[in-house]
Amino acid sequence: MMRITLIAVGLLLAVLLPLAIPWLNFVFIMAVAQGFAALGVVLLLRAGMISIGHAVFLASGAYVTAFLLRQTGITDLGLILLVATLGSGLFGFLIGMFMVRYRAIFFAMLNMAVSMVVFALLAKLYHLTGGTDGVRVATPTVLGAVLDRTVFDSLLLYISLALLVAVGWLVHRYLSSPLGKALEAVHTNEVRLEYLGVSAWGVLLYAYTISAALAGLGGALAAIAVGHVVPELAYWTHSGQLVLIAVLGGIGGVVGPFIGALFFEIVRVVAAGYAAYTWNMIVGLALLGVIFFLPNGLYGLVQRLLKRGGGS
């Protein structure tokens, strides 16, 4: 009950704070977008798999969004988010059929290799992708209505938070299901899982597809919020950032990646605003502090505080 109350308070603050501090609107949207992608990384981490290339699915969702608005005439926000999510999930399924055959460093490096190939294609196919200049993303319509950008940005935050609750609940149900529990079994004893008649390949492919769809949803939200997509979205350093956010927030629950993403975005924005030439160092120090002193991530800290509150 305490956990649900805390989540409700957090969502309420996310709705109200941008009314008093307008620049937080964009920060919160980007935190949700990055959180979805990091949540996809967390699913794989549950199975002991580290993907240093998962940003490729975030980029696929972003570019699908840009192409739908520019090439097809589809402008409805809900339809765009749905197609971008499903498209990235399909892409993840096709790539995952090959990827989930590998483990450890081979899995990590192969994912990075695929992301670098996609990055190179996005940068070189100028007539399709705009090359290094990227593609402009127009403002979508909402139920057929064309909204002022300021109004749209506020609505996008509310939609993002609603998606966080709905998708987060579905992922929580998935992780609580036998199929989700099998991810941990893959990590601890894959051979025993196979002896029980459960295909580790199938379990991982299912998780890989879901994780790609989550990243695609995050990419679509980020593309719409920023209004521009570039090949760097698929670069391996962005994938490393997603892994870092997942570890920062903690992999113990669905909320963790979003806490990590919010922490990362706020520290980055504040550091860039007050120390434009040293913001990378400030972000790095903040991240090191969390990693050294909070081994279970920020979500682990929240859990400890809740236990203390319950015990008192």
Key phrases:
single chain; 312 residues; 2 strands
Structure, described:
The protein has 312 residues and is mainly alpha-helical. The protein has one domain (2-234). The protein is 79% helix and 1% strand. The chain has helices at 2-20, 24-46, 55-72, 77-99, 104-124, 126-129, 149-176, 178-195, 200-226, 236-249, 255-274, 279-293, 297-311; strands at 135-136, 228-229. A two-stranded antiparallel ribbon has the order 1-2. Helix 3 (55-72) crosses helix 9 (200-226) and helix 8 (178-195) runs antiparallel to helix 9 (200-226). The longest helix is centred in the middle third of the chain and has 28 residues, at 149-176. The two termini are 15 Å apart.
Task: Summarize the entry for a quick read.
The chain is an all-alpha fold and 312 residues long.
Topology record:
Elements: H1 2-20, H2 24-46, H3 55-72, H4 77-99, H5 104-124, H6 126-129, E1 135-136, H7 149-176, H8 178-195, H9 200-226, E2 228-229, H10 236-249, H11 255-274, H12 279-293, H13 297-311
